[in-house]
Design goal:
The chain is mainly alpha-helical. About 65% of the residues lie in helices and about 0% in strands. The chain has helices spanning about 1-15, 30-35, 45, 55-70, 75-130, 135-145, 175-190. The two termini are about 110 Å apart.
Length: about 190
C-alpha cells in the first residue's frame, strides 16, 4: 500500500498536465468577481516596497525626531500681563475675604457684648432704684438730723459777665498719625 501512495503522489503532484476530466468546474461567481476587479489593483499591488538603505533610514529617524521636538515658544507680553493681573486680583480677593471674615467676627462679638451689657444694665437699674428709694433716703436724712432748707436759707449769686468755658486739645502731629494708621493697616494685612 505504501508503494501505491508513492506512485499516486508522483503521478498527480508534478507540474504535468492532467489528461482526462479531472479539472475543477469553474465557479461563475468567482470569475465575475475577478473580472470586476481586473481593472483595479490593491494598494499593496500598486506600490511595491522599495529597498531602504541605512542612510535613508537614519535620515528618516532624524526627521521624525526633529518633527517630534517643538521649538521653544515665546511668551507674549500680553499673556504675561493677563496672568499677572489675574494673580493680583486673586490675591486682592483673598485679602478682602480675610478682612470681611474679621469684620463679621467682630460684629458677632460686639452683638454678644451688647446682649451681656443689656442684662447688666437691667441688674444695675434695679440696684440703683433700690439704693435711691426716696422714702428710704428721707428717713435716713431725718435720722441723721438733716432738714430741708427754708426759703430764707437759700441764696442766689449773680456774677457779672457771660459764662465761659475753655477746651484744651492736644496738638496734632501728622507724622505720628500717619505712622499709627500705617501700623493699623499692616496689622490688618497680617491678620
Amino acid at each position: 500500500m505504501a508503494s501505491n501512495s508513492k506512485k499516486s503522489k508522483r503521478r498527480y503532484s508534478g507540474p504535468r498536465p492532467v489528461d482526462g476530466n479531472l479539472a475543477r468546474k469553474p465557479n461563475v461567481r468567482e470569475l465575475e468577481r475577478q473580472l470586476d476587479r481586473s481593472g483595479r489593483m490593491d494598494f499593496d499591488q500598486l506600490y511595491e516596497p522599495q529597498q531602504v538603505n541605512a542612510i535613508e533610514q537614519n535620515a528618516r529617524r532624524r526627521q521624525q525626531k526633529r518633527s517630534a521636538m517643538r521649538p521653544a515658544l515665546r511668551v507674549s507680553p500680553m499673556v504675561l500681563l493677563g496672568f499677572l493681573c489675574a494673580a493680583f486680583l486673586m490675591v486682592v480677593l483673598l485679602l478682602c475675604y480675610v478682612r470681611m471674615n474679621t469684620i463679621s467676627r467682630n460684629v458677632v462679638s460686639m452683638k454678644n457684648e451688647i446682649e451681656q451689657l443689656k442684662i447688666e444694665q437691667v441688674s444695675l437699674l434695679t440696684q440703683y432704684e433700690q439704693t435711691f428709694d426716696l422714702s428710704a433716703v428721707k428717713e435716713a436724712a431725718l435720722a441723721a438730723g438733716m432738714n430741708l432748707p427754708s426759703d430764707s436759707q437759700i441764696y442766689y449769686i449773680n456774677l457779672p459777665g457771660e459764662n465761659q468755658a475753655t477746651v484744651h486739645r492736644a496738638e496734632k502731629n501728622p507724622v505720628k498719625d500717619f505712622l499709627l494708621e500705617l501700623e493699623e493697616k499692616a496689622r490688618a494685612v497680617l491678620e
